[in-house]
Amino acid sequence: MKYTTYFIKFFYRIRYWLILAPIIVALLVYWQTRHTSHSYSASCSIYTGIITGVNILSESGIVTTAYTQGSMMDNLLNIITADQTLKQVSLRLYARIMVYGDPNKDNTYVNAANYRLLYNHADPIHHLIDKSSENDSINEQRTYENLIAYETNDPSNYVYGIYQWNLPYVNRGALQQIDVKRVGTSDVIEVFYTTDDPGIVYQTLLILIDEFNKQYQDLRFGETKNVIAYFRAELKRIGNELANSEDSLTIYRVDNQVINYEDETKHVAALNRDYELQYWQSLNDYNVSDSIKKELEKRMHLNTEIIQNNNSFIFHNNNISDINEKLAMAKYYSKDVIPQKMIDSLYNELEANKKALSDALQKTGYLKYSKEGISNEGVVDEWLKQVIAYKKAEAELKVLNERKIYMGKKYIHFAPIGSTLTRKERLVDINERRYLAILDALNAALLKEKSIQMNSATLKVMNPPYYPLVASTISKHRLLTIASYFATLFFTIFFFLIIEILDHTLHHVFKAEQLTKSRVIGAFTRLLPLKARRFNQTYNMLSAQTLCNSIITYFKPNQNNIINLISNEPGEGKSFVMAQLVQQFTERGFDVTQLSWQNEYSTAPQAFIQSLKLNELVPLEKSNSKNNVILIEYPSLKNATSTEDILQDVSLNLQIIDSRRTWKNIDQQLFERTREMCNKTPLFIVLNYTKRDTAEEINGLMPPYTFFHKLFYRISQLGLTANDKPLQNV
Q: I need a surface site. Which of 259, 286, 567, 617 has the fewest CB within 10 A?
C-alpha cells in the first residue's frame, strides 16, 4: 500500500516533466525528419514441405523427429540469410538496377533518384554494364557475369566493395534487414522486407527467392552428387578389377583346360585308381601267359622256332598284336578316340587273324607230333592260345604304361593348378564383394538424391512478392517521432527514478521513514506558491491540529506533559513548530508553559541543558494537572549534547527536520544516538518546510478543494470507487 501510493505521488510530482519533455523531443524529431522518405514493404511465403511432405526415406521407414525437423527448418533459415546468399543477391540486384534503371523516371525496378545515386557512384565499373542486346534479361546476365569476373579479394576492387561498402540498397547492412521467420510450427517460411524504394523492395525479394532456391539446391545436391560421383568412379574401377580377375581366371582355365577343378581332380584320381587295377591285372595276365607259353615251348622244342619263323605266323601274329593294341586303346581311352564301328571292325579283324593263324598252324602237319612221336595237337593249340593271350596282355601293358605316364603328367599338371585357381577365385570373390558393397552404397546415395529431389520440388512460393503501391501505414518519420516520444518518456521516468532512489532529502513521508527508520507524525508547509499563500494560516492550523492529536495520545496521568523539541542543526524550525503547538494547545484549554534556550541569552547551549531541571518547571500545585503542557525547545545537537534524564522523563520527544536539506550520515548517527538515549520514551519526527502533497499524507486533504485536487487525492489513496459525498441525516 505504501509503495503503491508512493509511486503514484512520484509520478504526480514529475507530471509536468512527463508531459512536456516527451512532447518537446517528439516535436523536434518530427520537424527534423519531416522530409524523410516513405517506407514500402513487401512479403512472400515459401512452402518447404519438410514436415508434411512425403519422401522416399520416410516411406522406407526412416522417420524424422520433431528435433530433426526443427533443425532442417533452421538450416533453411540460415541458408536464406547467409552471407553467400545475400552477396549473390547484392550483385544480381545491382546488375538489374544498372540495366533496367532510368535516370529520368521511376519504374518497377528502381526510382530515378536512387538509380542516379548508384550509377554516378559506380564510375569505375561503367564499362562492365552491358546494354548491347535488345533483350534486357540477356544484358542483365552479361552484366552480372562481368561483375563476377571483375571481382577480386582486394579492398580497392569496386565490385568487391559493392556488398562491403555502405552502398545503399545493395550493401550487407541493407540486405540484412530482410526479416525471415518460420510461421509457427508449419512448413512455411515468411520473408518480409522494407525500404524506401518500392521497386527495389520488389526486385530484392524476387532475386532472393531465386537465389535461395539455387543455394538450397547446390547445398543439398552438391554433397550427394559428389558422393554419387565417387561411388560411380569406384564402381567402375572395381568393376574393371573384377572383370580383369574373372578374365584371368577364365584364361587360366582355358589354358590349363580346367572346367571344374574338384570334379576333374576326383575324376583323375578315380581313373588312376582304375588304371592301377587294370595295370596290375594286365601285368598278371602277361606274366601268367608268358610263363605258360615258355613252358609249352619247352615241350615243343624246335617246333617253336619253326612256327615263330613262319611268315604266315609272323604276319598274323603282328596283326593280332596291332589289333590288341588298338583295342586296348579303345578300352582305356574315350570312345571319341576310336569310334564304335572301328572297334567292332577290329574285333572282327582280330577273330579273322586268330582263325587265320590257327588255320596256318593246322596246315603244318609235321607239328602234330613230337620227335618222340607224341601228339602235339593239344599243345600247339594251347600254345597258340597263350601266344594270343600274351600278345593281348603285352598290348594292354604297353597301352597302360603309356596311360600311366599320361596320368602322371595329369597329376603334375593339376597339382599347381589348385593353389593358383584358389588364389584367382579368391581374388574374384573379393572384387565381387567390393563391387556389391559399392553398388549398395551407390543405390543408397541415389535413393537419398531422389528423396532430396522430391523434397526440393516442394519448395514452392505460396504467396509471391507484390509490388507495393502504397507506403507503409506508419512512415519512417512518424515511427521515429513515436519512438522518440516513448524513449524520452522512459528516460524521464528512469532519470527521476534514479534521482529519487539516490536522493537523501526527507521531502516525503515515505522517504523520511525509510531513511530514519522512525515514524513521522507531523508535517508543516512553509514555502507555498503564490496562488496557495492565502491558505497559509489554514495549512498551519491543520498541521498543528494533526500533530496535537497525535501528541495528546501519549499524555500519561499523574505525570507532567512535557514535550521536547530537538533538532540536529539550528534553523530547522523548532520555534515555529512550538509556536503552532502553543496556539493549538491553548485553544484546546491546556495550560501551556514554553521554555526555549534562545530566551536565555546569558546561558550557553550546553549550560542550558545542564541547568535544566524538569521537576522544577511546574509549580507544585499544578504538577499533577492533566491540562498542564510544557514545551521545551533545546539547542541543536550540533551545538549541545542532550542527556538521558531530560529525554526520558517526558511524555515524548519531537525531532524537527527541515525536509529541504540533505539527511547526512552524521544526521542519522545523531538521530540513532538520541533514540537510544530516549529508551522507552517515544521519539517521533516532524517535517518542516514540506510541500502540500507531503503534508496531505499526514494531515489529510488540504485546500483548495477543487475537483481535480480532490480526484488526485482520492486516486493517491487508492479510493478508486469511493463516494466521498457526506450522507444526509435521515
A: 259
Residue pair 572/656 in contact by the 8 Å Cβ criterion? yes
Q: Are residues 448 and 567 in the same domain?
A: no
How do residues 455-464 score in pLDDT, each as one tens digit? 554 578 888 9
| DSSP letter (8 states) at residue 375 | B
Burial 106-126 (b: 16+ CB within 10 A, else e): beebbbeebbeebbeebeebe
DSSP assignments along 423-440, one per residue: HHHHHHHHHHHHHHHHHH
pLDDT confidence of residue 138: 93
Residue 556 lies in a domain: yes
For the chain, the first-to-last Cα distance in angstroms comes to 35
All cell numbers assigned to 374: 607224341
Residue at which a domain ends, from 179, 205, 224: 224
Please report which helix (H) or strand (E) contains residue 234, including its range: helix 198-256
| Residue 592: its H or E element | strand 591-596
Residues 581 and 655 in one domain: yes
| Core vs surface per residue 189-208: b (16+ CB within 10 A) or e | bbbbbbbbbbbbbbbbbbbb
Encode pLDDT of 562-613 as tens digits.
899 999 999 898 999 999 999 999 998 888 888 887 775 556 777 777 667 6
Dihedral sign of CA atoms 137, 138, 141, 142 in order: negative
Q: ω before 704 within 30° of 0 (cis)?
A: yes
Rg of the chain on CA atoms, in Å:
65
Three-state SS for 153? coil
- Residue 120: C-alpha distances to residues 113, 114, 116, 123 (Å): 11, 10, 6, 6
Per-residue model confidence (pLDDT) at position 474: 62
Cα angle 459, 464, 466; round to 5: 160
What pLDDT is attached to residue 267? Answer: 58
Which residues are CB-neighbours of 640 under 8 A, at least 6 positions away?
605, 606, 608, 609, 634
Between β-strands 520-525 and 561-566, what pairing exists: parallel, antiparallel or unpaired? unpaired
Domain extent for 623: 505-716
Q: Among 390, 418, 452, where does a domain finish?
A: 452
Mention every residue, 6+ apart, whose C-beta is less than 8 A from residue 100: 107, 109, 110, 136, 140
Is residue 581 within 8 A of residue 595, CB to CB? The reply is: no
Q: Which residues pair with 566 in a beta bridge?
A: 655
Whole-number Å distance between alpha carbons of 603 and 612: 11
- Residues, the chain, total? 730
pLDDT at 623 over 60: no
Sequence-ordered list of residues with C-beta below 8 angstroms from that of 723, at least 6 positions apart, any chain: none
Domain count along the chain? 3
